Amino acid sequence: MTTPARRLPRALLPFRHRAYRRLAVSLFFSLFTSGLWAVAQVWEVIRIGGGPPELSAVGAAASAGTLVFGLVGGVLADRLPQKHILLGVHGVQAACFGAAAVLSLTGQTRLWHLVVIGFVGGMASAFYYPAYSAWIPALVAADDLMAVNGFEGALRPTVQQAAGPAVAGLIIGALSPGIALAAASCCALLATGILTTVPATPLRGARGTAPRSAVADLLEGFRYVVSTRWLLSSLLFAALLVLAVMGPLQVLLPFFIKDHLGGDASAHAGMMAAFGIGGAAGSAVMTSLRIPRRYLTATLGMWGLSCTSFALIAVSDRLLTVAIAAFVLGALFSAPMVIWGRCSNGSCHRTCSAGCRAWTSSSRSPSCRCPWPSPDRSPR
User: Fold this and answer.
1) What digits encode the pLDDT tens for the residues 217-233?
2) Ramachandran assignment for 107, one of left (phi > 0), alpha (psi -120 to 50 degrees), beta (any other)
3) Backbone dihedral region for residue 262 (phi beyond 0: left; psi -120 to 50: alpha; all else: beta)
4) Which of 9, 118, 126, 250 is surrounded by the most beta carbons within 10 Å?
5) Within the chain, how many helices (H) and strands (E) appear?
6) Which tens digits make up the pLDDT trace of 301-323?
7) What is d(CA 94, CA 313) in angstroms, rounded to the nearest whole number?
């Protein structure tokens, strides 16, 4: 059901669709779950006597789960009802974080438990985002996709990187990591319950074309990326950026705060909140500006510049300085995502390039949000 659009600001137009309102609430709790887990896993590793190597193992397992199943998740998003995929993801997260909470509260947690849970959680994320992105064009009008990107661009850093970690830090400081893990499990269950109220939609497959096998789509996407030099170099840059930014942020920063600055879980959560607030501010500023003419250069440039914030953190001896650096890091890391999202809505051709079908879950819909120009276009 859709409510009248008059008198609504452009940014709120997607919310006139009842289905999207419910999906947005489910997304809120999903992001909150991720924020709780991000801090709770760190202090659960510390509770069992682990250090940076042990926390790295948990993070590496999560990354491996996402990497191994990422392409599969993108392909299945076009072949299975997206609602069912998202329900499965939330169910898996609730079970994993619930198991981690029970292990923590009973004092039975071992490192391999967290590694397995991290891997399964990363695998679930690999299925979540392709299915979610593929479902959006079926729930809102094509003209509302830009507003959807703007809303989600602000919601993700605010909830996943700021509010969720902040609440986790308060829970851990007052109670224990196990209670924070239990809260993450409950939030995943809430996201599942709300998602069940969103009506299912038909699969938005390519019209007038013969069904393609999943393997064919995977191979086509791989060939497209390898043969498109700018895209391959951008993906490699992004992979190195995640290694250079998220690795130190998630693994080294907690121990820097704990061992060098004498902080606790609340201090760690505060730094993550500063990162998230900076991301929300960067997204808001970029949303108000016109898209840069050299959008790819601007995107990669800001991502690269964000890494310099770690130099300030390295020489800091006060939590306030670290918070300022984290804020700047978040702003420079999240602002380019708005450019990416706006290009996704405005740069598509009527017919998507071949590789998009395997690498972008929503590429087969008339309102495709694919970010890749076709091979005959050179990015800027």
Assistant:
1) 777 777 777 887 777 77
2) left
3) left
4) 118
5) 15, 0
6) 887 787 788 888 888 888 888 88
7) 35
